[in-house]
Each structure stands twice: as C-alpha cells, then as structure tokens.
Amino acid sequence: MKHEVSPARYWNIKECTIPVGKVTIIxxxxxxxxxxxxxxxxxxEKVLDRGTVPNERGYFPPVVVNEEKCTVCGRCQLYxxxxxxxxxxxxxxxxxxxxxGIT
Length: 103
Ligand code: SF4
Ligand code: SF4
Fold this sequence. Notes:
The protein has one domain (7-94): Alpha-Beta Plaits, CATH 3.30.70. It has 3 helices and 4 strands; from the N terminus they run αβαββαβ. The relative contact order is 0.30. It has helices at residues 7-10, 38-42, 75-79, and strands at 17-25, 48-50, 62-64, 85-94. One iron/sulfur cluster binds next to helix 2.
C-alpha cells in the first residue's frame, strides 16, 4: 500500500527560515545596459531591474526593485565582471508555504 506524504507535513515550515539581504550597487563601476545586465538576468528573485539614470560612463546601472526578496544567493555579485554589486546578509525571515509551493 502506497502512503502519500503531504510536502506541507513533511517540511516543518514554521522552522524554515531564509536569509534576507541588502544589495549595494556602485553605480560608477557598472557597465549596465545592453552591454551587461548580467546581475538582472541571473537574479532568481527578480530583485533588480534596469535603471534609467546613466552613470558617469554613460551606462545604466540596475536599480533594486524587490530588495525584500533577496535571499543572498550571491549570483549578482558572482556574475558582475566590474565588482559593481555586493550583497550582505542583514537578517532572516520565515518563508511562507506559498513561496516554496507547498500549500
Ligand atoms: S553585472 Fe555588474 S556591471 Fe553588469 S549591470 Fe550588473 S552591476 Fe552593472
Ligand atoms: S543575492 Fe541573489 S537574490 Fe539577492 S539580488 Fe543578488 S542574485 Fe538576486
């Protein structure tokens, strides 16, 4: 006989926390726009979007649009060839069942 185990029962979601990050962009290092946007493309949480204000080199640094969703995965920092973006963990929060698809 097969027993089905609900994912919501399997995971103790009350104990499941996730890091909360703060994103820092050094605008004048950035070469964002058509030549880059790697941080925007690789962010799994859609924290970043293309900015509309050019920096001193005429590029368009990204802007942070959903900082509360940053999980400090580090991909933006890893893929930035200009060392123009950094993340730091500033806390933790409990994830909701909706966020991880186990309602
Ligand atoms: S990856 Fe770096 S250089 Fe490219 S858009 Fe993002 S911050 Fe700018
Ligand atoms: S650390 Fe991860 S989640 Fe946070 S902004 Fe960078 S790529 Fe997105």
